[in-house]
Amino acid sequence: xxxxxxxxxxxxxxxxxxxxxxxxxxxxxxxxxxxxxxxxxxxxxxxxxxxxxxxxxxxxxxxxxxxxxxxxxxxxxxxxxxxxxxxxxxxxxxxxxxxxxxxxxxxxxxxxxxxxxxxxxxxxxxxxxxxxxxxxxxxxxxxxxxxxxxxxxxxxxxxxxxxxxxxxxxxxxxxxxxxxxxxxxxxxxxxxxxxxxxxxxxxxxxxxxx
Length: 210
What we know:
Blueprint: H1 5-14, H2 18-35, H3 49-62, E1 70-74, H4 82-92, E2 97-102, H5 105-118, E3 123-126, E4 137-141, H6 148-158, E5 159-169, H7 173-180, E6 184-186, E7 189-192, E8 200-204, E9 207-209
């Protein structure tokens, strides 16, 4: 199976195997197909899908440097970053279990089909984040879902005691951090985005209500 030029470039930039890129190619093709009927991502962003979505999601996995057993992606939508995380983790044979939490049944159906088409096992949890069973995940992620104050509320239900949260944020990150501190006590680490100038991934470990 030949790789797309974008997948070839991604393989070089991120030092991943051909098999991983084949899975990512299959995922991107499915995303394009389903996006014509379900709003998984902005249609305009599909023109730069590898930089805007795939690489942007891959960098989140690269920040979870400690050995992990479970990952929960909240409000997963089209599987970003959760499905990309699951695909790339297959290469490391890490045994990482990925749960994708999505309340929209149509998007949940896409996630299940992406899992099948890419031959990457994930758990699709179709339900609202705040009522889904607690996942006790080592890593909790959420991309373009909600302000940081609300993300910590969601994460408090699903993160393991020693787990971390990884939340991509744009230029308003400092404003969101200050707003969240009115309800939560935490010390964030900010990682500059490799794909979007002026954006960050917020890493939060221990946090508690004020």
